[in-house]
Amino acid sequence: MKLILAGVLAGLLAATAAKADEMVFTSWGGTTQEAQTKSWAEPFAASSGIKVLQDGPTDYGKLKAMVDAKNVTWDVVDVEMDFAIKAAKDGLLEPIDFAAVPKADLDPRFSNEHAVGSFYYSFVLAWNKGAVSGEPTSWADMFDTKKFPGKRTFYKWSAPGVIEIALLADGVPADKLYPLDLDRAFKKLDTIKSDIVWWGGGAESQQLIASGEAAFGQLWNGRVFALEKDGADVGVSWNQNLTAADVLVVPKGAKNKDSAMKFLATATSPSGQAKFAEASGYAPINTKAKAEMAADVVKGLPDAHVDGQINLDMNYWAEHRDEIATRWYAWQTK
Amino acid sequence: MQGNSLRRRSIAGLPAGSGGALPALTLVGLFFIVPVVALLLRSVTDPEPGLQNYAALFGSGTYVRVFLNTFLVAAVVTVVTIIVAFPVAWMLAIMPPALGSIVFGIIILSMWTNLLTRTYAWMVLLQRTGVINRALMGLGIIHEPLPLINNLTGVTIGMVYIMLPFMILPLVGTLRAIDAMTLRAAALCGASPLQAFRRILLPLSLPGIAAGGLMVFVMSLGYFVTPALLGGTSNMMLAEMIAQTVQSLLNWGLGSAAAFVLLVVTMALYAIQLRMVGARRLGGGL
């Protein structure tokens, strides 16, 4: 029975797989993927003659299903770094061919055997100026409903960020965050639970803040950057900004592995990274990229805000992903 | 409705061994039985053979809570849908046919609009800065926005709206079949309108209510989009929980187990319903 099903599915999937001079790039959709298409896929197609088909959004369940069924239709996928570390351990990823992808200038924080950096970002505190009187300056302010009344919005899924924010707000020093004290974090989160509105995707976070539906939020800096570009009346605090990264991976058994590696070379090149950073407001993972960027763009990037910046520990998260997620959803549904 | 007549035919065709049912049976086998068996297998083999996924499922306060919540939401939605649908169906049943078909068309039309679009429309209406709250505050009726979204209220409003046609359609069929003379007879014998409703109309329309109610309840149990967008995390429903388990935790075994339990419960409900109302009357109501 299982075999029949697998056969039928394989046939259906094969019908949609890319041809030899094509490859498939999968990311999260929206403004981020548009910037990746413009900055990476289009120049790559022009120089290599390999057509890059876009798919999305990234779905870890789908990725695993493809690898398990040995029928992988995605060649390069943009994923969160903690997932990449875990997926490599579970045997879901191809090793990166560093003969094809120049490694020397890549920020070592965001590359490993099975992944190269895509971009890195910060969680920042953003607010709607029309809905907030005064200026929140730290994560503790987001937990102070007396001083700053109104709804606050946080990232809905179990991922690096919210737990750390709660601990910082509760007075844990930045260098003592790990190992995470989950009991303490959830206790702190309990104090504002009824004031939380969750956002599940970047566009939703922008809509909530821009409309004033939520007065404050923990947002990806690129999404705030896009709101400011659109002229929305938002404030942003970079104090205690939390960095995390997206990485590019090649699923195990990808059909166009060689093309994928070449694509990675373009995506992580100084010019590919510079173009993407200018379009998205996210920081480049190639150390030479900044030389190719306009000075005013460089000023707005996460790495221009290293004062009080905190690096989320991706290795810790990769190791405790399931355990934290189980606690997270148990708390959320309570 | 077509799906149902198809099902009835294939069930009726089975004992007679009719060759005409073969395509339908193949379809059901390939796209229903096979995936369900695969699901069941996965729940007892992934990551290793055994019942550990079911133990984890029932041992986890989270899943039990989400299960109970799913049934609560489905029950609330079903009851509210019946209450809203009944007057509409009654109106449709006694309307002149020409006018009735226009109103019918409007109801059906809403089913053709994309589900996601309709749910987003409700978000715009219900949120704190939404149309309803702004209007009520502008009129001075309320001073603080009403919490209409990210809670049970939001889910109920959004889902009742989507489920209404599935309740109205079977109800109209049942109500039309009721002889209007019975109501007139009740009135002549001195029954008040309320008495006539309670003792004549309501009992006679029970098969339609049961058929529609069951369909609404069962559909509600597995709903994903509307609760995910209009509900809050504290009233998460099972479909969303399963999606998280599979997508985020990559725990296919546990997700399959949860899906299988939901399926079994649904089938059991259907069986009970068949027994209570009787298959023929249920079918006739549709």
Automatic annotation (TrEMBL), chain A:
Write down the superkingdom of origin.
Answer: Bacteria
Going by the UniProt record, its keywords in alphabetical order are:
Periplasm, Signal
InterPro entries the record matches: SBP (IPR006059)
> Which Gene3D superfamilies would you find in this protein's record?
Periplasmic binding protein-like II
**Signal peptide (from-to):** 1-20
This protein's name? ABC transporter substrate-binding protein
Specify the species. Answer: Mesorhizobium tamadayense
TrEMBL record, chain B:
**Where is it localised?**
Cell membrane
Biological process per Gene Ontology, one example term: transmembrane transport
Q: Which UniProt keywords apply?
A: Cell membrane, Membrane, Transmembrane, Transmembrane helix, Transport
Q: Where is the ABC transmembrane type-1 domain?
A: 67-273
Alphabetized Pfam families for the sequence: BPD_transp_1
TM region positions: 20-41, 62-86, 92-113, 120-142, 154-175, 204-229, 249-272
What's the protein's topology in the membrane?
Multi-pass membrane protein
Q: What is its main location?
A: membrane
A Gene Ontology term for the protein's cellular component: plasma membrane
Q: Which family does it belong to?
A: Belongs to the binding-protein-dependent transport system permease family. CysTW subfamily.
- This one is known as ABC transporter permease
Native source species? Mesorhizobium tamadayense
